[in-house]
Automatic annotation (TrEMBL):
This is Hypoxanthine phosphoribosyltransferase. One of its GO terms (molecular function) is glycosyltransferase activity. Its EC number is 2.4.2.8. The keyword Zinc-finger does not apply. It comes from Actinoallomurus acaciae. Gene3D superfamilies: 3.40.50.2020. Its main location: cytoplasm. Keywords: Cytoplasm, Glycosyltransferase, Magnesium, Metal-binding, Nucleotide-binding, Purine salvage, Transferase. The gene is hpt. Its cofactor is Mg(2+). InterPro entries: HGPRT, Hxn_phspho_trans, PRTase-like, PRTase_dom. Residues 17-162 form the Phosphoribosyltransferase domain.
Length: 188
């Protein structure tokens, strides 16, 4: 069966709710950055969908840049040691920077990224994430804009993958355990 929807357990956040939340976040960001110009930094690949929809919902003038990072360490668990696979094209010194993420899980990726970008001297640095899993947090990271807090379940869709699949689902759902053979706890 090639239908990826057959691998779903349930829809956690339907498309309309995601889009409504993104419009809310965009309105909040527009208010906070009034009169300024923003550099959105998307974290490949998961943030692609949020970035595309958030950018289109904003009235604030923006540029887009992208980073690709990968965690070192054994297994699939995020270790907190991060390697840059693709760095920013732009110099962010003196700029207002907003990191855009799909999900903050353990927080290790974002914590590293935040201090890495902070060291480059931006005028301001904030984070916007669509999803956050408070029960999975291993480190506290300052996140200014949060779409939804979700339970510690294996989620896919709207940028989020399992083995690179399911990113193109327009909603966020949970994967049926038979697909990944796991306990339901997501590994980064
Ligand atoms: C996922 C997700 C976040 C990160 C969160 O990315 O998109 O970037 O993990 O995990 P953490 O809070 O535990 O560090 P992943 O490394 O799977 O790469 P991807 O975006 O290409 O899927
Ligand atoms: Mn990611
Ligand atoms: Mg992933």
């Amino acid at each position: 069966e090639a239908d990826m929807r057959a691998d779903l357990e349930k829809v956690l956040i339907p498309e309309e709710e995601l889009q409504a939340k993104i419009r809310e976040l965009a309105a909040e960001i527009d208010r906070d950055y009034e009169g300024r110009e923003l550099l959105l930094v998307g974290v490949l690949k998961g943030a692609v969908m949020v970035m595309a929809d958030l950018a289109r919902a904003l009235h604030t003038p923006i540029s887009m840049d992208w980073m690709a990072v990968s965690s070192y360490g054994s297994g699939t668990k995020s270790s907190g040691v991060v390697r840059i696979l693709k760095d920013l094209d732009a110099d962010i010194m003196g700029r207002d920077v907003l990191i855009v993420e799909d999900i903050v899980d353990s927080g290790l990726t974002l914590s590293w990224l935040r201090s890495n970008l902070e060291s480059r001297g931006p005028a301001s640095l904030e984070v916007c994430t669509l999803l956050r899993k408070p029960d999975a947090a291993k480190i506290e990271v300052g996140v200014r804009y949060i779409g939804f807090d979700i339970p510690n379940e294996f989620v896919i869709g709207y940028g989020l993958d399992y083995s690179e699949r399911y990113r193109n689902l327009p909603f966020v759902g949970t994967l049926a355990p038979h697909v990944y053979g796991g306990s339901g706890e997501q590994e980064a």
